[in-house]
Structures are given as C-alpha cells and as structure tokens.
UniProtKB/TrEMBL annotation:
Family, similarity comment: Belongs to the bacterial reverse transcriptase family.
Stated name of the protein: Group II intron-encoded protein LtrA
Entry superkingdom: Bacteria
Every Reverse transcriptase domain range: 91-337
Segments for region (Disordered): 562-592
Pfam families: GIIM, RVT_1, RVT_N
Bias (Basic and acidic residues) ranges: 567-577
Transmembrane spans: none
Amino acid sequence: MNTSETVMYEWNTINWRKLEVNVFKLQKRIYCASECGDVKKVHRLQRLLLKSRDAALLAVRRVTQDNRGKHTAGMDGIASLKDEERLELAERVRQNPYETKTQPLRRVWIPKPGKTEKRPLGIPAMEDRARQALIKLALEPEWEAKFEPNSYGFRPGRSCHDAIEAIYRQVRLVPKWVLDADIAGCFDRIDHEALLEKLGTFPKLRRVIRAWLKAGVFDEGNLSPTSAGTPQGGVISPLLANIALHGLEAAVRDASPKTVYLKDEKRYVNGRPALIRYADDFVVLHRNRKVIDDAYDTIANWLSRMGLEMKPSKTRIVHTLEEHDGQVGFDFLGFHVRQYPRGRSSCIRIPKTGKPTGFTPSIRPSKASQKQLLEKVAEIIRSHRAVSQVRLIRLLNPILRGWGNYFSKAVSQDVFGRLDALIFAKLKAWAYHRHQNKGRRWIMAKYWSFRTGHWVFGIADKIKLLRLSDIPIKRHIGLRVVKSPYDGDWVYWSQRLGQYPHVPKSEAIRLRQQQGRCACCGLNFCSEDQMKLLHLDGDRKNFTRSNMALVHERCVTTMKKRVKSHHNAEEPYEGKLSRTVLKTSTDREART
C-alpha cells in the first residue's frame, strides 16, 4: 500500500502543539492509572497511544530531527529523511507498531572520555528507531509511576546534580560509611528473560521488545547473536536498563533491620541505608559498617538474578570523615564527596538541637575531572599553535563554560582559581613559542590586559577567554522526589528547567520571563528539548529584553519567517505572533 496517498497534509504544516498536548494527555492518564495500580487500564491506554497518529508523528520527529544522533545510520544506511519520507515512516509505524521483523544493529565504537578503551554502541535501523521511540512514549509514564525515588539516571526531569544533592542531604549532618559500587558491563549483561518478566507488559508488546533484544549485532562484516544485554545506542535501551535495575533500592531496604544499636553513641538509630543510583553507578550510605557489609551481600545476590555483578576494581567501602584503607571520601559523577573536621565555630550545627557536628561536608570537582579538563585544554593549545588568538579563544571558551557550569553547583571556587592559574601558564607557553624573539613584556602586552586585579587573555572590547573564577557558585535546588514530568505540574517543571546547570544564564533569564514557554509555538519547554536564543533584529550585540526570544531549535526557521513577514508588512500582523515579537516591532517603529 502506498502510504503517501493516504497522507493529506505536509510535514511543515503540522500543528505540533496540538500533537504534543494530545500525546501528553494520554501519557498523564497512563501515569495516573499506573499510580493507582490499574494494570488493565494502563495496557488499554498504551494500546490507544501506540495506534495514535499524533504519537507516531512525534516519535518520527524525535528520531529524525530532535535527537543528536539523528545522522548516524544503521544497517539500512539511512541517515536523513525528507519531509515526505518522514510522513510515510510515521504512517508505517502507526499501522504496525507491533512489527517483530527487525534488522540487526550496526556496531559503532566510540572512545570513553579520559580512557583508551572504547564503548560499543548498537545503532538500530531508522524504522526500528522510530518504533522504539513510539513504544517509549507508552512505557515511560507507566514506569515513572513505579520507579524508586533515588533513581536519577536516564529519567526525564532528573539530572546528575539531583543525585549529588541527594548525597549531600545524607552526609550534611552525620558521618557515614559508603559502599561506592559500579556494575560491570551493565548494558551488555542484562538477562533477557528476567527483564521481560519484570517488564510485565501485554504479549504483543513483549514480543516486539524480545525481537529487539535478540536482533543481533553486525560488526566488521560478522553477524553476532545477542543472548544478553540491551544495546547502547537504541532509543529505548536506557529505559530498559532502568527497568532491569528497578527494585534494587527496595531490596536493600527490606533486607536491613529497622533499627541498629550504635555503641559509640549508646542509642538506636534507623537501620535502613540510603541507596542513590545514577544509571549503573550507585552508592549506599549508612552510619554503621555492618549495615554496609550486609548491603553488599544483598546487592550481589540481587544482581546475580539479573545476570549482573559488581565491578571489583570500582567497588570499595570508604568513610566520609575518617581515613579507611588510605582513603577518605568517594568520587561520584565527577564530584568528590567527603567531610573535613572543623572546630566548633566553623562546623555545621544540627538544626533542632544547635549542637555542632564537628565537621563540614565538602563536594567539589574530583581530581580526575580536573586532570581531564587540563589535558583537553592542553591538547587544544598544543595542536593550535599557529592559529590566531581569536580562534583559540573560540575553541576554548565552550569547553571551559560547559565544565564550569557543571561544577558551579559545588564548592568549586578554590578549584576554579587553581585551574585558571594552570591554564594561564599553558597560554603563556603558547604565546612565548609564537614570539621567541620578543621580550616577555611585549608578549604580555600583546595578548593580555590587566583588569580588576587579574590578567585577561583576549582582545579588548572584542573577545576574551572565559575565566572559571568568573562563573558564580550557586547551590542546586534538589528535586522533589514525589514529582514527575507526567504529573501535570508544568509550572513546577518549567520553572525548574531554568535552574539546570547546562542552561546558560541568558537562556535561563528568558525562560523565567517567558514563564517556561516557547516564544514561537507556545509549548512548555521540557528537559529533552533543544533551545535556541534568538536576536530578533539580527544584531547579536543587542541583548535588550525586547530583542531576545527563547524558542525550540525546531522553531527557529518559523520564528525568523514570522518576524521578517511582520516587519515587512504594511499593516499590523493579526496572526498568533508571540508578545515578544509584537513588543520588539513596536519598539522599532517608535525609534524610527
């Protein structure tokens, strides 16, 4: 059947706002039904969503336009689609969402950051990706209502900083023993039958997911079967990995006693340890060492039932305050967590009693993260000795800004200052190498200027290198563990998105001013969206409020066309144009 004959609309004319609202309404109903434990209603709503044309179009848009890996081809060799082909693909996926005939995955090896070894990815075919995105739309709200509160990896609306904030709440007032563990080859070793049994979905969907898991991998001309694991690179793989690890926190909590007796304090305390997990990395914290040892055995037994095991080289037991086996504290998600002994005047006090704790908790960038940044900066400087100063600054600034924004939610000011000094020394060596016949004062005057007590690498009033010390340190506001993006509270989630560290300050300001909505389509921004800050008059130096508009990345072209047509029109535009555009055009007319 020629699906193009049944499609009576064009890709660029689709009302995406209406589609997203319709799909979100169904997802919200699935979430509420899953919270109530109504399995039949959940499955009925999921079947309805999988047959929805709106959901199919949304799934195709995400894998062909929104995802960063959209141009990576699978075994079908398709890396991009035209608008007509997207519509045909959406119609095929909608008509047969339970297709079990899948193509093998194409193996792609990517380097691990800071390591010589590589990580294997399995890239599905384009149609399989679209079908996975569609099924993920149906499965994700069901499991968001079931997932444990301290699971943060690969979940909508949750980030690394939420996991770090949860750890801070655990170590803020009490020193604790910590089991810092990592699962060996988590994505590659998950038992398929155990995963499908835990999934608990209806038979048709179960057969589709089984077909994806058993599709095989094509690597360097050889087709290998996949008897275990969820391939990294698939759209639905992170969700399946989270489902496989669901229940680990409850198992540790149920296996621990309700209370334990502390000999040092001569009193009983809560015996349930806290387990905080981000993807396959997790930590277990408690005040008693025996509870941690018992939790280690419980986790090992639980993982064995899923075909997994802890990695011995990355699993250790440490203490946050006292030295144990030559180590104090632990590294997690690039941060180093520990406690420093302090006097009565400089330590934290317990809120209810006012008694001093005797220590201060500290979360700062780990030494491995600092070393990785310095090595990356040094490599860029070393490999670009002949480029201009402006070009070098443009290469370094995105790296420094991204790294600094990520660690700006920790106690990083002294680390930032030390790294600025080391980068300054590397830049001096770069400048001295370029002008070996010039004096050092001449070189410093050419490339640096002395402002506000420190040297600035750049050209005055044009461009300068970002200093990490100039990035403000602001504490991350932790996530409310009872909240979910599918609970319908978009006011909370829209405002929260502006506080994410990876959102630049200018975009965060506009996000709050626009009340979390896109200036073009009016949709709420969500954590998976790519945002773009537009200068409406085209002048990138004009940062006035009326000239800035924050839109979805997919709405950039539409927004520019609307602004251009509105400015060129002889009469006022009466269509649905954002208030930001109307205010900008009014200001321009008043100035002229």
